[in-house]
Amino acid sequence: MTATILIAGTLFTVGGLLAVIRLVKGPTQIDRAVALDVLLAIVVGVIVLLAAYTESDSTLVVAVVVSLLGFMGSAGLAKLLPRDRQ
Amino acid sequence: MTVVDWIASAALILGASLSLFAGLAVLRFPDTMARIHAATKPQVLGIMLLMLGVGLRLQTPGVIGLLLLIVILQFVTAPVSAHLTVRVAYRNAEQDDEDQSVTPEDRAHLDERLPASDDGPQQMGQATADESDRPAGRG
């Protein structure tokens, strides 16, 4: 199981770094919002992976909150971005 | 390792690799619409696979209820937030005629559903300004 955690953690790390590159480059603000969405999905994945590693359920509540926060964030960005343009 | 452990490992690695592919696609895909398409994959299928892996690993009822709650929340919120983002991306793409990410067929289909875009590109500033005046029944 340790090997699984290592492989999955590496995949998450590389995916997160690629999303961060898009977050920095992103030509439009929407690209940045999308990259943030991906990054937040990866954060939820890492929290869940931590729960699998430690075999305790105490971090899973954080995953619920973060996944809700991701929705609120992208909905708020979608509402506010058009005024930001031009 | 038992069979259940193998299945849990496979689910965890598959879910993590979906995140990697989403990061790769968000970096490499050419336009915003394609990036949004790729970005929604780890949010639903990836989270579902990860929850399956963890649920098989910690087999207690409380944990499985919490995992189901996360999966249901993602199922409900991921399409809504992707839709909101795509709507903004579509309106902005309308302003740049050289942007080919929305085909004319898509545009004709979407124009029936987005009354605010009937104004045309030149009135975009006004269309966003009087947001409260838009017809009822949408967003």
Which helices and strands appear, and what pairs or packs with what?
The complex is a heterodimer of chains A (86) and B (139).
Chain A: H1 2-25, H2 29-54, H3 60-84
Helix pairs in contact in A: 1-2, 2-3
Chain B: H1 3-28, H2 32-57, H3 61-95, H4 104-113, H5 124-129
Structural summary, described in words:
The complex is a heterodimer of chains A (86) and B (139). Chain A has 86 residues and is mostly helical. Chain A is 87% helix and 0% strand. In chain A, helix 1 (2-25) runs antiparallel to helix 2 (29-54) and helix 2 (29-54) runs antiparallel to helix 3. The model of chain A has no long low-confidence stretch (mean pLDDT 87). Chain B is mainly α and 139 residues long. The termini of chain B are far apart. At the A-B interface, helix 1, helix 2 and helix 3 of A face helix 1, helix 2, helix 3 and helix 5 of B.
Features:
heterodimer; A: 86 residues; mainly alpha; Helix Hairpins; 3 helices; 87% helix; 0% strand; B: 139 residues; 5 helices
